[in-house]
Design brief:
Glycosyltransferase family 92 protein, alpha+beta, 23 strands, 2 domains, nine-stranded mixed sheet, glycosyltransferase activity, transferase, Immunoglobulin-like, five-stranded antiparallel sheet, disordered N terminus, transmembrane
């Protein structure tokens, strides 16, 4: 034996540690070698139908592919954002076709199910494959086996292959719009507030909404502000409108929100300086700066190398009104008028307010709803005197009398521009909706 003849406990322990370390290094080497791309065919043209759905089920319906993205921050890989069953999906393979030499490579995937699954059997997952050297594949196919007919496999376009200069400073990711969403007035107000604060693009993962809401979305799409990503997740899985597992037979929580957020992050990684992860009824309101650009310039100078800035959520109950800004022409529009709700709930004892984020997408690997899970930089909690999230919704502390609420009119700083902009949208959409 390697350790024979060693009499002292110290020497024996040192020997065991050395052997264990050697075995661990050898194992990691084998693991990496097993994931290296291997040529399986030569002299073939890339075939197979191009996938064109937002959510694509693989054979067996335990794996769902959203989209692949090129990621060279650590090594040259294709990272597929997907949804998998956390126990049943053990092996997947990426099939890369390299032109013009026609070589087909296969890579064993690393399947990384995100830790924030909240008990549901299906969760967001990164499916990561090493790419072949001397090849920049434009498409990838996914299979449960290293064997098969390439003609029968769907091909997915690999996004982010070419680095781009940022086309926008701020992109808001909203996931997901479901439940026949019809909060039209508050949605328009949020959109116009985002634009006032400096947003150029809003990406919405849409499951369904009302007919009137469709008209509003069409207006913003034609304006160039909104990008809609169809999100028919309930065609594939039994979805819950709750974030935590209720043991009610559902497969995934909150309409697959976490998967959509991660896809939105990577989708905008090369085209947006910042990505904002919040809901349509939430607005990050700066208290010390006129807009988000000035706020983020200041925050980045104070916190170099930060990947995520987290803003504290505060509830402004939609049942508590101020009679100011009761605009009669808005009363026929479905939804909440946020200008009338300027009373916020006080902090609850022993309850931490959740946070939403503005992130540098190139520094984030995985995100959840209220924090990033993996990143290359630190996360910073932004003090409430710098900014807070205005969240107008149903009260969480319904028993509180009005006198116990805090009057906070920060939103009214923007009332002139907001009213003018909302009236412009309504004049161009609601009149058409009545025709």
């Amino acid at each position: 034996m390697l350790c024979a003849g060693k009499k002292s406990y110290f020497a024996a322990a040192l020997c065991i540690i050395t052997v264990t370390s050697m075995l661990a290094v050898f194992y990691l080497h084998l693991q990496r070698f097993s994931h290296q791309p291997k040529v399986i065919q030569e002299g073939r043209r890339c075939t197979g139908k191009i996938a064109n759905s937002t959510i694509t089920a693989l054979k067996g319906n335990k794996t769902f592919i959203i989209s692949p993205y090129f990621d060279d921050r650590e090594s040259k890989v294709t990272r597929l954002i997907g949804i998998v069953h956390h126990e049943d999906v053990k092996q997947l393979y990426c099939w890369f076709c390299c032109q013009p030499n026609g070589k087909m490579y296969i890579s064993k995937a690393k399947i990384d199910v995100h830790s924030d699954r909240f008990g549901f059997p299906y969760g967001a997952a990164d499916i990561v494959c090493l790419e072949p050297e001397n090849c920049d594949p434009t498409h990838v196919s996914i299979n449960q086996s290293p064997h098969g007919n390439t003609d029968q496999l769907l091909r997915f376009e690999i996004k982010n292959r070419k680095a781009e200069t940022f086309s926008v400073d701020f992109t808001v990711c909203i996931s997901t719009m479901f439940g026949n969403y019809n909060n039209v007035l508050q949605f328009i107000q949020s959109m116009e507030m985002y634009k006032i604060l400096g947003v150029q693009k809003v990406v919405i993962y849409k499951n369904n909404c009302s007919h009137l809401m469709e008209k509003i979305l069409k207006f913003y799409i034609e304006e160039g502000t909104v990008e809609i990503i169809p999100w028919p997740i309930n065609s594939h899985l039994r979805v819950s409108s709750e974030w935590h597992f209720m043991q009610d037979g559902t497969h995934i929580g909150y309409y697959g929100q976490i998967t959509a957020l991660n896809d939105c992050l990577y989708r905008n990684m090369e085209r947006s300086k910042f990505v904002v992860l919040n809901d349509a009824d939430e607005i990050i309101l700066p208290l010390k700066h006129p807009n988000w650009k000035a706020m983020m310039n200041s925050l980045q100078k104070q916190n170099p190398g930060t990947s995520a800035f987290l803003f504290e959520n505060h509830i402004f109950p939609e049942t508590v009104f101020s009679h100011k800004f009761n605009i009669s022409s808005w009363n026929t529009v479905p939804g909440v008028n946020i200008l009338q709700h300027v009373y916020r709930e006080p902090d609850r004892k022993d309850v931490i307010n959740p946070r939403k984020m503005i992130v540098d997408p190139r520094k984030v690997i995985q995100t959840s709803v209220h924090s990033v899970l993996r990143a290359y930089g630190k996360s910073v909690n932004v003090p409430m005197d710098v900014a807070l999230i205005y969240h107008c919704r149903k009260a969480l502390q319904r028993h509180l009398p009005r006198e116990s609420l805090i009057r906070d009119t920060t939103l009214w700083r923007y009332n002139s521009s907001l009213i003018k902009n909302v009236n412009r949208v309504l004049s161009q959409t609601m009149l058409q909706a009545q025709n």
